[in-house]
Amino acid sequence: MGKTAVAWLSLGVAVIALGLKYAAWACTGSVALKSDALETVINVVAAVAGLLAIRLAERPADDNHTYGHYKAEYLSAIIESAMVLVTAFAIGRASVGGFLHPVHVDAPWSGIVLNGTATILNLVWGYTLLRIGRARRSPALVAGGQHVLSDVWTGFALIAGLALIPFTGWHWLDPTLAALVAVNVLRVGWEMLRQSVAGLMDEAPDPETLQKMREVIARNAVGALEAHDIRIREVGAVTFIEFHLVVPGSMTVAVVHEICDRIEVGLRQVIGRALINIHVEPEYKAKNTGIILTSDDQKA
Prior knowledge:
Elements: H1 3-28, H2 31-57, H3 72-100, H4 108-136, H5 139-168, H6 173-200, H7 207-220, E1 226-235, E2 238-247, H8 253-271, E3 274-282, E4 291-292, H9 295-299
Parallel strand pairs: 2-3
Antiparallel strand pairs: 1-2, 1-4
Helix pairs in contact: 1-2, 1-4, 2-3, 2-5, 2-6, 3-5, 3-6, 4-5, 5-6, 7-8
C-alpha cells in the first residue's frame, strides 16, 4: 500500500474517531471527554495536512527543486506538532473552567463505551501508522502515528477515571483528567516538534547508522586509500551521502569509477534510496582522518 493510500485511510479513521468522541461528550457533558474530542479535531486537520504533504513529497525533482520535494513531510510534521501544542493549551483552559464551574457528568457508561470504541480504533491504527511510517521512512506518517497513540493513552486514562465517578461521587476527577490530558498532549507535541525541526536542520543519523555506513564504505572501497569529510543526512525516505575518496595518483579513471560504483551499490543495499556524491582526490590530498584504508582493508 502506497503512502498516499495510507494517508487517506488515516483521514478516514480520524473522522470516525471524532464522531464517536463527539457523541461521547454530547451524551455525558464531561469536560474530559470534550477535551478528548478537541484533540481528535486536530487529528482530522493533521491527517489532511499529512495527506497533502505526502502527495507533494512524492513529486519528482524539477527545475526549482533539483533535490526533490522530500522535506514537505517535515513541514507537515511541524504543522501537526504546532497544532498539538495549541490543542494542549485549549484542553488546559477547559480543565480550569471545569474546576471553576463543576459540571455533573451524566450517563458516564454510554460515554465510556463510545470513547472506548474510538480509543481501541486509534490504538490499532496508531501502531499501524508507526510500523508503515518507519518502514517507508515517512516523517509525516510517523508523526501521525505518534499523535494518534498519544490520544490512545489519554483515552484509556479518561475511561478509567470516568468509571470511578459513579462509585466515588468525585466529580472533580473530570477536570483533573482533562488537565492530565493537556500535560500529555503537550509532551507529545514538543517531542514531535523537536524531531521535525531536527529533520529540517539536516541532523545527522544516530551513531549506529553512521558507523554502519562507514563500514560499508570501507568494505567496498578496495583499491582506494582514504575516505574523509563524510557527511550524511536523511530527508524522509532518501539519504544524502557525500564524501571525499582519496585514490593513488596512478589509478585510471575507469578503475576509480568502478570503485565508486561498488561503494554506491553497497550503500544502497543497506540504506535503500540514496543520493550519493563522491569527490575523488589524488593521494597527496589525504588528511589521515576519516576512514583510513589499511593493508587489511585492501586485502578484504
